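hey so i finally got around to running the thing on that chain from the lab meeting. sorry it took forever, my laptop kept dying and i had to restart like 3 times. anyway pasting the input first so we r on the same page abt which one it is
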Amino acid sequence: MSTTDPVQGAGVCPPPRRRAARIGRALGAALALYLTFEAGRFAAGYNIIGAVRERDAQQATIVRLEHAERALQAQLLELQTVNAAHAREAQVITRTIADLQAHIARLSEKLAFYKDVVAQGAPPIGLRVGEVLLASGRRAGHYRLHLSLLRADRPDGAVSGTVSVSVDGVGPGRATLDNRSLTGSSTGMRYRFRYYQELREDLVLPPGFKPKYLTVTVRARHAHIAPLIRAYPWDVIGVP
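ok and heres what got predicted. didnt touch it at all, straight out
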């Protein structure tokens, strides 16, 4: 029968207990190292809890600033859209005012002409040449003629006829250009009105021709209305 030494049996641990003891010592050493590391960072001024809180606060600030930036961008886009719309409206209003002012000026001129005709007294039946203007075209020697006709009496019906033009000046070969040479038409502009009518015609001068006078001849189909002939200095009726 074998016997076990009490002293020897008490000093030897079973294998599982030895492994548990080694693991405990390793964990204790790791914990000691971590605590030593944290103690060192804390001593250097680093606080992990404070760092986490500061990071969260900064993240919240970033989110808040991003929301504010998007809101400001939306407001800026809205203001730019409103300003663009107002600018277009201002341009339209300015253009409309200018057109109305020009129209009022033309009506004032026509009204003054009518008043002058009435003040001087008019024959029972008669034609009058109102406004005569020459606008320069896009090409050299090209012009746009604006001409108005009116009745100086109180007509009971419409009057009709033709208007022809000619230009006197200095040029190669001839000094007078007839209606065919200026417009390509031998009949002239046709008119028919009771009180007032505006006519427009394109005129083309040959190269080298220097105009001096524009002559307007108004013929009516009514035999009792005599032809009306008026001459106008080219420089006076010309507009840019």
